[in-house]
Amino acid sequence: MLKRVHFPPGILPYLLVAPQVAITLVFFIWPAAQAIYQSFLLEDAFGLSTEFVWFENFVALAEDPIYLGSFGRTIVFSAAVAALSMSFALVLAGFADRVARAATTYRTLLIWPYAVAPVLAGALWVFMFNPTLGILPYFLEFMGIEWNHYLNGNQAMLLVIMAAAWKQVAYNFLFYLAAMQAIPRSVIEAAAIDGAGPFRRFADIIFPLISPTTFFLLVINVTYAFFDTFGIIHAITQGGPANATTILVYKVFNDGFVGLDLGGSAAQSVVLMILVIGLTVVQFRYIEKRVQY
Amino acid sequence: MASITLENLTKSYGDTEVLHHVHGQIEDGEFIVVVGPSGCGKSTLLRMIAGLETITGGQVHIGDRVVNDLEPAQRDIAMVFQNYALYPHMTVRENMAYGLKIRKFSKAEIEARVREAAEILEIGDYLDRKPRQLSGGQRQRVAMGRAIVRHPKVFLFDEPLSNLDAKLRVQMRLEIRKLQKRLGVTSIYVTHDQVEAMTLGDRLMVLNKGYVEQFGSPIELYSRPASVFVAGFIGSPAMNFLPAHAEGGRLTLENGAVIASTTAASGPVTLGIRPEHLVADSQGPIRLAVDVLEQLGANTLVHGVLAGTRTDLTASLEGVRDIPGGQELAFSAPPEALHVFDRATGQRVGD
């Protein structure tokens, strides 16, 4: 067994962890506690009168069709972002894994989108798809598609999904590539000798062997789509048109800071908090154990 | 079943040629061992035959086909890898069946072949286990099972025993040999272990720095090594090499001792004598100054130097001996046990 005490017991260990504890308390625990407290309050827009209403805010949420609609949209959005970015990353990684020459260059280039700030990524896509100035609507018109995400809710949703997925491809790509490169070459060669072509090898050998990574990325991507896509949506659609792209995290901001329904917004963020705790539990319980094969 | 012909085979990485003009004719059903030190190109040669490495120059024939441009799957070969390369997410049964499944064999045929292979290799009890639940020796058997279910024309073995412990290695070596004899499939086996090579192969191809030094039966290599490299590589304990001067069939050693021989060589040569061929003879010309002994039970290895020089010399004496260090022993060697090599080129000369 390791010797447990290397330092004399005393105040030093506490001092060493104090900065981290302080940061956690000030920036995480305190705001979270505030949000929970606030979610039980009903407050007027000017903050002049406050009433403690227990779970009334949550009941109101559960009965609010706009909120429930936003829940549904969030699920569609997250599923689409995760599916799109992961499958695209998987294909890219599959090819990058086969390249012998200039592999480092591809890898570096493919990582770049991850370094782009969400708002900038959003701005990029807004410009590309701007109905009057954008290059892509210009081409889409030739194909008979009229693009205007300012008016068409489905197109707006499609655009934020693409932008959010694009940004996450780099991250997924890195993990997939690392997982593929961890597979012993000889296993792939054995499959080649057994008669499996490149696609068969990918489907029968590579994909099952990287399933732990797929599961890990699924949780990470859903978490990302749920909580980290505020910047992209804010830059591209501001939740519109007609709430078509208002996902839960955007609605928290919108109701709280634009609508000034602080209690309702706090209740929404508590719901989100419970979701993220749930996802984290899933991640720790199952991913740490890895997928068995 | 097929013969294999290697014709002027070369392999280069960029400007670096790692295999140089390898020739070889391998008969149907023969067991060939490719042996050489690390980095001699033996695995590269095997992988070229398998189709896992491109061929820079020359041709590989399997049967009557040139297979240079065929995918590994089309060459009708099976390979056993050093790390077994089992599919970790499949059971033993699925591992063995995979190649047959891809080739669209019927379920019944697959089951029959897997059963047959499992019986031969005595792994019938593990068919539903995953590779990680098996020991090293069992994984080795599964890897061989995966090779034999396909009934390929050629088996390729890439150092298949080097991850096993010494005892298991000896046992598996014998089993591979028996299996190959029983199935009669042409096999190429790569190893760096000369004992493995000697015991397994019908013929040995000795590779050194990408050149074929010699290609022949184990006994041929032992009794008539073509070069200093082969002479030193084959046989244990290793052959003694003594600088000598040849003239008129007489070999003069560094310390002035003269050995009678039948060699036709003349000039500076390297004289090779195996430790087991030195015969204790008080009148003998070869004098050994004893340094240390190695007791092996059945015989004793006497290590020392050629008297009056600093050239290492080892003799093998029968039984248990007790010889104090510093003592001089005299030996003679029969002319047929003398191997004479050109000093400069290392090639066998003079007979």
TrEMBL record, chain A:
Domain ABC transmembrane type-1 positions: 71-283
Domain of life: Bacteria
Membrane-spanning intervals of the chain: 12-33, 75-96, 108-128, 156-178, 205-227, 266-287
Keywords: Cell inner membrane, Cell membrane, Membrane, Transmembrane, Transmembrane helix, Transport
PROSITE patterns (alphabetical): ABC_TM1
GO biological process: transmembrane transport
Entry's localization field: Cell inner membrane; Cell membrane
GO cellular component: plasma membrane
Predominant location category: membrane
Recorded topology in the membrane: Multi-pass membrane protein
Known function: Part of the ABC transporter complex UgpBAEC involved in sn-glycerol-3-phosphate (G3P) import. Probably responsible for the translocation of the substrate across the membrane.
Quaternary structure and interacting proteins, as annotated: The complex is composed of two ATP-binding proteins (UgpC), two transmembrane proteins (UgpA and UgpE) and a solute-binding protein (UgpB).
Similarity remark: Belongs to the binding-protein-dependent transport system permease family.
NCBIfam families: PRK10561.1
Protein name: sn-glycerol-3-phosphate transport system permease protein UgpA
Species of the source: Jhaorihella thermophila
Phylogenetic placement of the source organism: Bacteria, Pseudomonadati, Pseudomonadota, Alphaproteobacteria, Rhodobacterales
Automatic annotation (TrEMBL), chain B:
InterPro entries: AAA+_ATPase, ABC_transporter-like_ATP-bd, ABC_transporter-like_CS, ABC_transpr_MalK-like, ABC_transpr_MalK/UgpC-like, Mo/tungstate-bd_C_term_dom, NA-bd_OB-fold, OB_MalK-like
The ABC transporter domain, residue ranges: 4-234
GO MF annotations in UniProt: ABC-type transporter activity; ATP binding; ATP hydrolysis activity
Membrane-spanning segments: none
GO-annotated biological processes: carbohydrate transport; glycerol-3-phosphate transmembrane transport; glycerophosphodiester transmembrane transport
Gene3D superfamilies according to UniProt: 2.40.50.100, Nucleic acid-binding proteins, P-loop containing nucleotide triphosphate hydrolases
Entry GO terms, CC: ATP-binding cassette (ABC) transporter complex, substrate-binding subunit-containing
Source domain of life: Bacteria
Keywords, ordered alphabetically: ATP-binding, Cell inner membrane, Cell membrane, Membrane, Nucleotide-binding, Sugar transport, Translocase, Transport
Protein's UniProt keywords contain Membrane: yes
Family from the record: Belongs to the ABC transporter superfamily.
UniProt-recorded name of the protein: sn-glycerol 3-phosphate transport system ATP-binding protein
Species of provenance: Jhaorihella thermophila
